[in-house]
Amino acid sequence: MSRTNRTIGPHGLKAIATIAGITVLLLLPAFWNGYPVFYFDSLDYISLPYTWKIPIFRTAGYGVFATVVLPFNSIWPIIIVQSALLAYVLLEARRILFPDLSAPYACVILAILALVTGMPWLASIVMPDVFTVPAVLLTLMLAQTEIRLGTTRTTVFILLLALACAAHPTHFALCTGLVLCIFVFDKLALYHWPVMRMHVRYAIVGVVLGIAATVGANWIASGKVFLTPRTTSVLTMAVMAENGLLQEFLEEICTDPEEHKSVLCPYREEIPHDANEFLWHSSFFHKVGGWDAMIKESPWILDEIIDRHPIQFARTATQLTLEQIITFKTGEGFRTMVGFLDLELRTYYAHENAAFMAARQQGYKDVEDSPMEAINRVQGPFMLASLPLILVVVVLAWRQNDRWKLTLAGLVTLAYLGNSFICGAISNPADRYNNRIVWLVVLTVLVLLPPLIKAERARTK
Fold first, then answer.
1. What gap in Å lies between CA 313 and CA 253, rounded to an integer?
2. Of 30, 70, 28, residue with least CA distance to 47
3. CA distance 11 to 14
4. Among 28, 79, 253, 306, which has the highest number of CB atoms less than 10 A from its own CB?
């Protein structure tokens, strides 16, 4: 099917019904649970609409989105709205990015994704991770040049991209990197590479609006102007502690009378070799002055580490990125939240406290006790297999000179790698970081690989 100069029509009742159906599919984990699912970070997001306060290590974008709770005084609207937005983006992606995908096969693919990836769990949890894939898809749809979107659809896409970028600081970093990759692809097309011509102006507008929205939300919630959490360098320093590079650096400067001393020097023997323990569970963190002291210390310490040990720092970042690439289990942190955020439920959502307490999630002392272990035994192989298979898609599309499939698969692959670097090397590898995007890799493989295999068989006969 030729993609050139095609125009897609407006949504009708059928599209609305489709969005509603996908939304229900996405909310199945919440229905099974009996209440929206929570992660530890959800605490700050469900309270912000009432307190307008954010911790020093958080940004306010998703918390502002969570104000959808206010007219209803219920947490359900958060996951309903985010699921409906994801459903809408998926419907548009089928029309624009996968125009040859039939409706029956699209339904099959959605069912497969619901079974073998964390897609519905991401939609059912009160967390900004649900916006990662929409951020990528919206960037790709705004960058394509061969389907006329129209003014209304373009405006909606830009606003949704801004929302997705504002939801979490890693999203605008991811989309900025993706825009740069799209720009490079466009230039490569001029040199007759088998990729599509694309433009980045609308995607840039969406990302810039998202950055502005983030800064504005942070200012409203904290009275301070900032884009990323002021603790980002502290998170990276914790990663350096886990790999021993921080301790090695401190040993150098703390024992040399000519060196500038760090407030960490008296406690360098107490620094744990675990990033999470470093940040959340170690008494040494509070001995040196907590977040305020760490925020002052971490920037110059990281600069010095990079300056003195550039190769070791680069090697560590590479190792962490590679580790993050294959770290993507579903349901990280799915355990009881009693004793963690039940005070906020009783304070701001008192009439839902009984539902919260009765939810299945509260019955599991730890994630290992929950059904997530069995779910990941099923999902893990499928998600892992998608990583080499998308490279097969890239190779076959290149061999067949299929510019659109090569462009799409190539950019999705780069988005996955970029997310692995942003999250793994900076914040330390964690399952939820790549679980939020690996399902896009699975989706791309399911849509693009079968026709490429069919075309390859026909080509080699």
1. 17
2. 70
3. 8
4. 79
Every domain of the chain and the residues it spans? 9-228+329-460, 232-308
Angle at 394 between CA 391 and CA 397, to 5 degrees: 150
**The two structure tokens encoding residue 458:** 């026909």
- Interatomic CA distance for residues 411 and 136, integer angstroms: 9
**What pairs with residue 37 in β-bridges?**
125
What three-state secondary structure class fits 430?
coil
Q: Which of 271, 276, 267, 283 is nearest to 244 (CA)?
A: 271
Residue 339, Ramachandran bin (φ over 0: left; ψ between -120 and 50: alpha; else beta): left
Q: How far apart are CA 461 and CA 455, in angstroms?
A: 10
| Beta carbons within 8 Å of 383's beta carbon, 6+ residues apart | 116, 117, 328, 438, 439, 441, 442
Locus of tokens 């001393």: 261
Lookup: tokens for 337: 């939240």
Q: 243 is written with which tokens? A: 């790999």
Three-state DSSP state, 217: helix
> Is residue 90 within a helix (H) or strand (E), and if so which, with residue range?
helix 76-96
Look up the pTM and report it: 0.93
For residue range 402-411, list pLDDT tens digits in order.
999 999 999 9
Task: Name the nearest CA neighbour of 253 among 264, 243, 244, 240.
Answer: 264
Cα(238)–Cα(249) distance, integer angstroms: 13
- Assess contact for 109 and 442: CB atoms under 8 A: no
CB 25 within 8 A of CB 17: no
CA dihedral of residues 310, 308, 254, 318 (deg, nearest 10) = 0
- Segments in 97-168 forming alpha helices (H): 103-116, 119-124, 132-143, 151-167
CB 229 within 8 A of CB 58: yes
Report the run of H or E that residue 6 belongs to, with start and end: strand 6-7
66, 80 in Cβ contact below 8 A? no
Q: pLDDT digits over 106-146, tens only?
A: 999 999 999 999 999 999 999 999 999 999 999 999 999 88
Residue 454 exposed, middle or buried by CB count within 10 Å (0-12, 13-18, 19+): exposed
More confident residue, 193 or 229: 193
At 286, the amino acid letter reads: H
Pairwise pLDDT comparison (443 vs 247), residue with the higher score: 443
Single-letter residue type at 208: V
The Cα–Cα gap between 292 and 295 comes to 5
Contacts of 129 (CB under 8 A, 6+ apart): 122, 168, 432, 435, 436
Spatial distance between the Cα atoms of 303 and 423, rounded to a whole number of angstroms: 19
